[in-house]
Write a structure and sequence with these properties.
Among the domains are: 149 residues, Arc Repressor Mutant, subunit A (Orthogonal Bundle); 127 residues, 3-Layer(aba) Sandwich (Rossmann fold), CATH 3.40.50.10070; 98 residues. 52% of the residues lie in helices and 10% in strands. It contains 27 helices and 13 strands. The strands form three sheets. Strands 8, 9, 10, 11, 12 and 13 form a six-stranded mixed β-sheet that branches. A four-stranded antiparallel β-sheet has the order 3-2-1-7, with helices on one face. A hairpin with a 2-residue loop joins β11 and β12.
Length: 622
Amino acid sequence: MNPPQARYEFGDFVLDVGRQRLSRRASGDVVPLAAKAFDMLVFLVEHTGEALDKETLLHALWPGVIVEENSLAQCISTLRQALGETRHDNRYIATLARKGYRFVAPVTRCDAPDVMPESPAPTSLAASGRPRWLPALGLVGVAMLVALGLRLHAVEAPVAVLAAPTLAVLPFKALVPADSDPSLEMGMADSLIGALGVADGYAIAPLSSVRQFALRDVDPLAAGRELGVGHVLEGSLQRSADRLRVSVRLLRVVDGRLLWTQTFDERFTGVFEIQDSIAARVRTALKVDAPPRDPARYSGRTRDPEAYALYARGRYAWTRQTESSLRNGIQHYEQAIARDPDYALAYAGLSDSYALLGVLGIEAPHEVFPLARAAAEHALALDPHLASAHSALGHVQLQYEHNVPAAAASYGKASALDPALALNEHRRSLLFAMQGDTERALATSMHAQQLEPLWLAVRASPGNFLYYAGRFEEAIAVAENVLALNEGADNARCMLIRNLIATGKHARALRELDRAPLQMPASHALRAQALALSGKRAEATQELARVMALSDRRYVAAYDIALIHAALADRESAFLWLERAIQDRSTLLVFLAQEPMFAALRDDPRFDALVARVGIARATSK
């Protein structure tokens, strides 16, 4: 006969160690417990009435690894919640001030014969590779084995081999929420993603894929399952004056096993050494060889920790892509450069931020694109191998200078240096779309999406390409899919409205415009267009007057005003404002040859002359 399996009853609960299950005595309902919480409960119950100090519990639950006491406190808190204990109601677990814990509920052991488990979910060490004999031995036995210097991993049960092993580095969390610095927390993840690189087919989830977890209180294993990765690295950090405390854990998603954990408490000047140490330990734990030094990933950086922190704030601000965040990001980049004048990455980030102010129509292109070019050139003078700087220069060459060959060459250099730079692939897709090569634009955009699956700007861009190709219903579907993921995706909402106007759905377009203000390319024209094309000419004229008054206070692209006049069927005014658009380098001029709203102007020789002056030829879709 098989030996009996330990089964305990206490209070309202039944703890079945053999089946790895905690259930309610009356109803039989299973109480879900994470792996560590279940193992903690087993250990406490097996030592009912004993005063267990924190050191004993740490050694028993995390044998052979260094874990901070906060992990123990979190595990106890989770367990108390599962048992229904309130803050001052310690029916099961009593806290021993400054010492440890004691299980105080009366426990009855009523073992059951060993039977085949009912395929339980892997909620504890027994289901996650712990040897089958460990439940009977008890976790105290584990602690004894560790004390004797034995290594449990020598007798681990085999685990399934992942077909495509991957790692996600989750955004770090603030150790003290009140002291949160999202830019530094995201920057730490970003730096580690870059430092870990790719080796032997071991892929790292891009920053855009994990960014969603920065503001979500989610279990790291749940995040790993959502991302479809094999392992997750999570961490917390706290900066106080010149000190930095960083705690990290590497977890295996399939079974929740803790592979490595460590806490660093250093001067902030040691942040780069901390990142290098974490990357090295992760590679060791995952048995991944260190990749060869990649100039695109490791060049352009700084050794000044304060400059790095400022750069991280600038990069975080750029991702939000609002007027205030972009201006704030520029300040941070400039401060980083003031601390380290040789910080090439900061110059590249500065270039991207200036350019985006022009693209979104926040500032006049003449004001910001020359600054963007100067920053990109300076970055390349400091580091010719910096892929992001080549891409930033190409963006200026295409969007502002309309120099297609130069832009294509810059994008090509960036791609050769860093094929995984999604922003560069996104920009290359724009280049193809501007030339009317819709299919190639869509294919390149898909590649960018594969590199950065959750970057919504990349997901939305095919809608623009389809709009210019006259495939409006397909474009609407793209926009609606993106907005289903994030209602705040302004680029998708703007693109949806443009396509609704093109398909005659003017009432719905106006409803979308009423949701919230937009600051996107062509956004100043949208309301007047919808009104004019729906026959409300007087209201459209009033809206045009409002836009003109606004242009006295801030930049409004001449291209937007030309769109309004075209909707009002005022051909001469439309051509007048297109001429002014060429003078002010309105950023949407790059799509002039394909703009559906100018269809009525194409039979006029002046239109072809304007297209020729822009310099981006109208091509047929391939």
